[in-house]
């Protein structure tokens, strides 16, 4: 595999890492960049290229695990997190069972409709639709969500809210909708602060992306060759590095600017892509 091909993997990894946790759809951006410029299907085949766009997100997921390591250790019962003041144990905390409840809806639908999504929704045209409709949902959330959140941290989320956010996450099965855009919007409409919704989104992303990657790899394993391995490794490393940078930046930003600026960006991007390429 030549340097130019590896460079394409690095570019896709950069796109993934910078956009995975912003509510703009990392998969949507990768599909657009790949379809319009990089054309990875020409040297990977369609199914391996689609799998790459899913598996590459594991680099970003590794970044989440590192940044939220104390939270994950707490969820697994290996370390008890303390209050923000550092004194004493928290009387209320997010439970692993609540995360599982949030994962169930998208997990079930993802398994049932995986083939349909793979065959029909990984295109620039469907991504543009997801970008615009997802942007509308984000605007609705900021405009009509409670002005004063009743849930300031992820530890205050109830089982009912976790399930409802999980239902919103189902929208992200449509490429371009955005996992974080869907779940943060749903969380805000349910009374969560933007930061609490973002934290819960990132926590849920880890198991669901591991599951999605495993499912896609198993389904398309017969199409893989060792020639594709350097492409996957380069994409994984670049997505990990740039996700480490973007996650910290996004978490500092989201409570301040909220969702509407991201929604405007999505609509402008969809309009520009439509004018140029369609």
- How much of the sequence lies in strands comes to under 5%
| Biggest sheet descriptor | none
Instruction: Provide the succession of SSEs.
Output: HHHHHHHHHHHHH
| Number of helices, where a helix is a run of at least 4 consecutive DSSP H or I residues | 13
What is the mean predicted local confidence, pLDDT?
90
Give the N-to-C terminal Cα separation.
32 Å
Name the structural class. mainly alpha
Helicity range: over 70%
Structure summary, number of beta strands = 0
Compute the gyration radius: what is it? 18 Å
Q: Runs with pLDDT <50, length 5+?
A: 84-88
| Shape, per Cα inertia axes | globular
Short description:
The protein is an all-alpha fold and 278 residues long. It has helices at 3-19, 26-38, 41-44, 46-55, 57-67, 69-75, 96-120, 124-144, 159-169, 179-189, 194-219, 229-257, 260-277. Helix 1 packs antiparallel against helix 2 (26-38), helix 5 (57-67) packs across helix 12 (229-257) and helix 7 packs across helix 11.
Characterise the protein shown here.
By secondary structure, the protein is mainly alpha-helical. The chain has helices at 3-19, 26-38, 41-44, 46-55, 57-67, 69-75, 96-120, 124-144, 159-169, 179-189, 194-219, 229-257, 260-277. The longest helix is centred in the C-terminal third of the chain and has 29 residues, at 229-257. The relative contact order is 0.21. The model is unreliable at 84-88 (pLDDT under 50).
Summarize the helices and strands and which ones pair or pack.
Layout: H1 3-19, H2 26-38, H3 41-44, H4 46-55, H5 57-67, H6 69-75, H7 96-120, H8 124-144, H9 159-169, H10 179-189, H11 194-219, H12 229-257, H13 260-277
């Amino acid at each position: 595999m030549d340097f130019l091909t590896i460079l394409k993997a690095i570019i896709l990894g950069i796109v993934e890492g910078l956009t995975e946790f912003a509510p703009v759809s990392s998969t949507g951006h990768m599909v657009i960049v790949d379809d319009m410029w990089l054309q990875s299907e020409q040297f990977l085949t369609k199914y391996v290229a689609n799998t790459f766009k899913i598996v590459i997100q594991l680099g970003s997921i590794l970044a989440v695990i590192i940044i939220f390591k104390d939270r994950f250790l707490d969820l697994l019962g290996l370390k008890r997190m303390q209050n923000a003041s550092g004194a004493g144990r928290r009387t209320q905390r997010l439970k692993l069972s609540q995360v599982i409840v949030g994962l169930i809806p998208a997990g079930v639908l993802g398994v049932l409709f995986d083939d349909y999504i793979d065959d029909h929704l990984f295109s620039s045209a469907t991504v543009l639709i997801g970008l615009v409709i997802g942007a509308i949902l984000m605007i609705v959330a900021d405009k009509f969500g409670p002005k004063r959140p009743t849930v300031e941290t992820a530890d205050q989320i109830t089982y009912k809210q976790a399930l409802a956010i999980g239902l919103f996450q189902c929208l992200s099965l449509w490429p371009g909708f955005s996992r974080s855009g869907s779940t943060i919007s749903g969380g805000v409409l349910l009374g969560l602060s933007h930061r609490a919704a973002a934290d819960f989104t990132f926590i849920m992303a880890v198991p669901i992306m591991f599951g999605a990657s495993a499912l896609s790899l198993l389904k398309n394993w017969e199409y893989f060759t060792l020639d594709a391995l350097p492409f996957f490794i380069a994409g994984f490393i670049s997505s990990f590095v740039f996700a480490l940078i973007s996650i910290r930046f996004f978490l500092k930003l989201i409570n301040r600017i909220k969702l509407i600026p991201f929604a405007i960006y999505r609509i402008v991007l969809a309009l520009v892509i439509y004018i140029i390429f369609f």
